[in-house]
Specification:
The chain has 151 residues and is of the alpha/beta class. The chain has five helices and five strands. It is globular. Bound molecules: adenosine-5'-diphosphate.
Length: 151
């Protein structure tokens, strides 16, 4: 089944959701009818800063001004989540060549599994380049104020 609406899934750990993530969402707003932020359980990353429910609440607040954006948690493969929501696009943010090299085989493999799904990469603006959830989490765990990096 296909859906003519341009629905994009923005998958990630979002632990925490940063102003870098929000920047990607804002840039994607005019491209898609709907954007679903999909908080995945990533087996290689620990969630330490907050509980998953706090994380969900944090994202809900950040996206409140944008009616076409929603957020959900998911388990399993991103392509399965996309199919369930009839989403034809996966949205990802690229900060540097390391991000790109990491993302490329995932995008290619996702397309092998479902060639109706296209991964769309948007590059970050320079001021968000150094913002990663891992670094923000580390600062926060060491009692540094990270509010400027969070929406
Ligand atoms: P994952 O564990 O899937 O990498 P993240 O929450 O770290 O999840 O990132 C989700 C997406 O957001 C990824 O595409 C990542 O490259 C992108 N991203 C993370 N931080 C930034 C940033 N500061 N600017 C632009 N994109 C970002």
């Amino acid at each position: 089944m296909t859906n003519n609406k341009r629905i994009a899934v923005f998958p990630g750990s979002f632990n925490p959701f940063t102003i870098g993530h929000l920047d990607i969402i804002k840039k994607a707003l005019p491209l898609f009818d709907e954007i679903i932020i999909a908080i995945g359980k990533n087996s290689t990353k620990k969630s330490q800063l907050k509980t998953e429910d706090n994380n969900l609440e944090q994202i809900k607040k950040a996206i409140a001004p944008y009616p076409s954006v929603s957020v959900e948690q998911y388990n399993g493969l991103t392509v399965d989540f996309c199919q369930k929501h009839q989403a034809r696009f996966i949205l990802r943010g690229i900060r540097n060549t390391i991000d790109f090299e990491y993302e490329k085989p995932i995008a290619q493999m996702n397309r092998k599994m479902d060639n109706n799904i296209l991964t769309v990469f948007l590059t970050t603006d320079e001021q968000y380049n150094a913002i990663s959830s891992t670094i923000i989490r580390e600062l926060s765990e060491n009692e540094k104020d990270v509010t400027e990096f969070l929406p």
